[in-house]
Design brief:
single chain, 48 residues, alpha+beta, 1 helix, 2 strands, 40% helix, flat
Length: 48
């Protein structure tokens, strides 16, 4: 796997992504984007 970290700095969520651009894009789409949607109260987006 690739390194990924999630934590909080005070009340701010912090995401650490891998250095490889392709790995970062995949981690962002699969983990970070859904997490941000949930944290913002939007809920996960569904494909049409």
């Amino acid at each position: 796997g690739k390194p990924f970290v999630y934590g909080h700095l005070g009340k701010v969520p912090v995401f650490g992504l891998p250095g490889n651009p392709v790995s970062s894009a995949i981690i962002f789409l699969k983990l970070v984007k859904p997490a941000l949607e949930l944290l913002s109260g939007q809920g996960p987006q569904r494909a049409v």
